[in-house]
Amino acid sequence: MEDISKLPKIFDQLTIRGYSEDQIEKIAGGNFIRAFNDVISCALRQ
Question: What is the pTM of this model?
Fold first, then answer.
């Protein structure tokens, strides 16, 4: 993915492939939480 502007295309493809709205929200939220935790962990090591 070149940049964040392409993220909606990923969610569109998940919908096409049969993922429910609830599943997609969990994927999106889970990715945010994982990335946020990685940032916090890195910041705390500084």
Answer: 0.60
Residue 1 has pLDDT above 70, yes or no: no
> Average pLDDT of 9-26?
94
Calpha distance 11→26 (Å, rounded) = 11
12 closest CA partner among 21, 4, 2, 3: 21
CB-based contact 1:7 (threshold 8 Å): yes
Query: If you search the block for the tokens 């709205």, which residue do you land on?
Result: 21
Distances (CA, A) of 33 to 8, 13, 17, 41: 18, 22, 24, 12
33, 25 contact by CB (below 8 A): no
